[in-house]
Design a protein that fits this description.
This protein has 111 residues and is mostly helical. The chain has five helices and no strands. Helix 2 packs antiparallel against helix 3, helix 3 runs antiparallel to helix 4 and helix 4 packs antiparallel against helix 5. It starts with a helix and ends in a 9-residue tail after the last helix. The model has no long low-confidence stretch (mean pLDDT 87).
Length: 111
Amino acid sequence: PPACALLPRFRSPPSAAQNQATQDEAARLFARSNELARAGRNAEAVAPAEQGVALRLQQYGPDHALTAAAQNGLGATYRNNGRYAEAETMIRRGLATRQKLYGPEHLDVAI
């Protein structure tokens, strides 16, 4: 094979338009999840919340405030469905990220 075929393939970074589209899609998913939960359709609210967290992780990684907020929201959605172990795990992940970002005394870390 040609030498260039042996080089790892790197994706170019996403464009500003792609980043905005991902942010918009995540916001749409969270809004849909919240709408479903307010309508008492808690089981249906899980999938869009999970998809939103996946987008936040993809776009920002695990150590970002928006990812932490998304994880906290998913944890609340799990809690509303009686999925307490998953809720605790997700909420603790978000809390750990906020502690790392802001320190243990910050208001966004207070429980």
